[in-house]
Design a protein that fits this description.
The complex is a heterodimer of chains A (99) and B (164). Chain A is mainly α. Helix content of chain A is 77%, strand content 0%. The longest helix of chain B has 22 residues, at 34-55. The chains are: A mainly alpha (99), B mainly alpha (164).
Amino acid sequence: MAIGWYLAVSAIIFTIGAAGVLTRRNPLVTLLCLELMLNAANLALVAFSRMHGNGDGQIFAIIVMVVAACEVTVGLGMIVAIHRRSLPVDVDELRELHG
Amino acid sequence: MIVYAGAVMVLYVFVVSYVSEGPFQSTPGAVGGAPRVLAYAFAAALAVELMIAMLGSGLQGIDGEGAQYDPGFGTPAQIGELLLTRFLLAFEVASFLLLIAAVGAVVLARRRGGEIDSTQRRALSVMDMLRDERLGTMAETVHAGPAVGATTPAAIDERSQGGW
């Protein structure tokens, strides 16, 4: 199968993720959609890595996964903290930063 | 990949089940009205733009099967060697980032033992750690304010229930 198809799938997944981030108000779903966008980029990276026969893209994808895992960990920690304080878990309600 | 699926997705499931029970049952849905239309329009524009970028890239290899297949390509041995030689710095930075994120998540999700208002807040000194739990402080003796970690029954109860 041509490399272009992998890129097409990657573009579609990225678009779905972007639409989700823009429309959803639940921070959990927003985080999942961010994850979707990062994984779409990973797919493109691995596809290009295969295209060039070079392993660098795969290392890049692994590093992106590590960063994504960090981001999700901190994001979920924040959601748990918000929930503990009995604040609504809604990104529209949480616009202001105060202690 | 297995680490990823195992750690992150299980974390997701736990947080979803944790958040969905509780006083706020209603989870917010999608935005409505004009912002929603605008968001979908933006997403559609993004999709079109990505497709144009792909079709117009002029990359020769994009229609092919990729480079000549090399038996060692993409094996754990090759990736491990690259990670530990050429990308060693990135590997180390990533490990530090994971450590920081883990500590940050624990700090964020920690259970706090009640809010301390500004009148009660004072600098925590080393003596508070060394002091016997049953003893008060000098400041307490002269009624200058409660000791940090003073052993009122409520405080003991709080501590035995623990946070993380």
